Amino acid sequence: MKNIIFLTLHVLTVQGNIEYGEEDEPFHREKRSFYKSGKLMENETSRTLDFLLTESGYNKRFRPQFGGEPVTVYVNLAIRSMGPVDENKEIFSLDCYFRQSWTDERLKYNTSGLNELALNWAFLAKIWKPDTFFLNGKQSFLHKITVPNRFVRISPNGKVSYSQRLTIWAACPMNLRKFPLDSQICKLEIGSFGYSVQELIYKWQTKALSIDDGVSLAQFHLANWTYKEKLGYSGLRTRSGLRNDSTVQIDFLFERQTGFFLLQIYTPLTLIVFCSWVSFWLVKTEKGGEVPARTSLGATTVLSIVNLGFGGKSKPKVGYSTALDIYIILCFAFVFAVLVEFACINFIDTFVKRFRLWEEEQKKKKEEEEIRKTKEAEEMKQNGAVTKEVYQVAESEGGQLAVPHGADGRVSTQTRSSSPPSGTSSPPLAKSECISNVSTQDACVSTEDDFEDIEDDEKEEKESRLQCLVDAYNMIFDCLLRRCFRKYHPDIVNWYIYSNTLDVIYSIDDWSRKIFPIIFLILQMIYWSSYLYIF
Prior knowledge:
Number of strands: 13
Largest sheet: 7 strands, mixed
């Protein structure tokens, strides 16, 4: 009886264990199918890639939907930094993530547990990808540190996402007539190098552009951007002519920040013009002490304008005048006009002084001429009376004749006999022969002295050349003034400027103090309103 009860309990226990195992086994199997190990996922991914690229007959040399509808490529940009914008080379640069996405039906897969295939950059060499390039690019490159900065993702529906980090230098034709008050529009045009619109179409994604908050430029401000898609003829050619391409374009509006130019160029030029007006308060004096001060001030301001304005390296080298060039020329004209105003009043003063000196010289010459004529008339009368008396005495004495010499009234007597006096053996030496003998001796002595003084004479000639040029200039100037004096001599004396020279000079300076600032202010208003609001 005991044996029968033991067997019955043993059978019930084994049945209970079997039932518990049958209920527990499905729970463990469901858990293992939901959580796959890494090795299992690796094997499934490898089998999927082998099937897509090898077993399915994938050919990377042919685009998706070859022979059918064109492939649509969606692009967008994520800009990390921008600049510089170089107006001398007419280029701009940006550092960005350039993303492209398209659908390749040949890369579809249905592997459980794989929502996306994240692949290495080396996988790009095994699949087809669009030959995208930048139509106005000049020197773009892919970042390769520490590895090539690009990746690819493949979705189960065959969508391929391709991203790469690029630094792009693109051409930007600029119109710098308003420099530095200008704004420039620089475009970035993207298209296919080998495919036409019948094979490849580019479109912007929903969010075409994203810019980091820290993006800033030194001289420009990115005010706005617009993007568009274009279908039409491009600059690429085929055998039949221009190719019909699909491109996308984004336009950046850069506004130049004028703070640097206002502080470094505009403000100093304006202050130099103001400094040149100080010469209007250096009034004319009798001694002429203001002449060196006004001359040095005018020359210094002119040279400062030339050095700061025309010698600056911050100006673009273009073949037309910019707004900055116009302002520099305006300031230079005002500074030069101040110097010309001083030259005019100095010329007026010099002209009147020389005219008065010339008048005094003419009066002295007239007085000397009248005195000389009076003396000559008196001498002629005296000589006539003396000659008459001498001839009368000669006739009364006989044998001697009085001969007058010169205008001083000296009289010499001569005898009428033709033979020389007795006791003389030979005639005396002629006066010319005596002089010739003496001069020969003097010449011999003087030639020795001349050889010793040649070096001194050459030094004196070199030192006197500059003085000769100055004297020649003064002589020419005096000749011109004398001609002017002869032509206008009757009228100059009646002019107001002749009798009140200082009043005229003071009035010119007084009017200059008012006219120069007013005209400069008016031109400033015209300049800034024209370049900021009109042009």
